[in-house]
Known about the structure:
Elements: E1 2-6, H1 11-22, E2 26-31, E3 40-42, H2 52-55, E4 60-63, H3 76-100, E5 105-111, E6 122-123, H4 133-143, H5 146-150, E7 154-160, E8 162-165, H6 169-179, E9 192-193, E10 195-197, H7 198-210, E11 215-219, E12 225-226, H8 227-238, H9 248-255, H10 259-262, E13 267-268, H11 271-276, H12 285-293
Parallel strand pairs: 1-2, 1-4, 2-3, 4-5, 5-7, 6-13, 7-11, 8-10
Antiparallel strand pairs: 9-12
Amino acid sequence: MQIVLTGASGLIGTALKQSLRGDGHHVKTLVRHDTSEPDEDSWDPAHDRLDPDFVAGSDAVVCLSGVGVGDHRWTDDYKRQIVQSRVDSVGTMARSLAEYGGAPVLICASAVGYYGDTGDALVDEQTPAGSSFLADVCVQWEAAAEPANAAGVRVTHLRTGLVLAKHGGLLKRLTPLVRAGIAGKLGSGKQYMPWISLTDEIAAIRFLIEHDVAGPVNLTGPAPVRNADFTKTLGHVLRRPTVLPVPGFAAKIALGEFADDVLTGQNAVPKRLHEAGFTFAHNNLESALRAELGV
């Protein structure tokens, strides 16, 4: 297959590119800087600039672009970057595919943040959007792909949960704290954490490239857990105590508005992946943590 990938330098994009190329697939990447590298081209989604010839003849486009949600405090300027980096990228690609063609499939990143805070309620792909900032981001993010959908391109939205990986994401921040014995449940600890191993995240994206599944798909593990249980399990895997809770007010002081989403969660399950026949490598949190951390 020939795949065009955006966001190839991120945690998921890097792993996906390596996985596809490792199996002999042709992966071309779009970057936001000048380049003369083979199989790489520059684009400017902020100004709707994309060379359609670079995409022509591809079997699928996978759009994973977007600044990190938790990389900075949520100032007004950074919130604009969160929205624009996602909406501009998907919108530019979708409009190009609608006008010029190039690929029959568009796989777009999204997030379980689409659902907002759902408490204990079970969440699948039919659950409506929430009302938080991140929920609104996801609604705009997914809507940006509509030109491609209207033109007959199969569009799939990856509503990804918390990706577990040794060298990035949540575990990169949390593991050193647990090893130091200074981590515990966050806030009440009752909020659900819809985790997925990086291994299963990449396998699921590849599955969705090749299988005719359109619309939103939850990329979460089969068994979401509460924050307190997540922390306890990570401590067990690392053989360290996790008895120091982080009060909600402390999280808000440290993280600002982002803490409101950290202190809430979604009991999100991968209903559509199960229905499509996808098989998880990691069906429970402990096996996922041991595999990704190599312990």
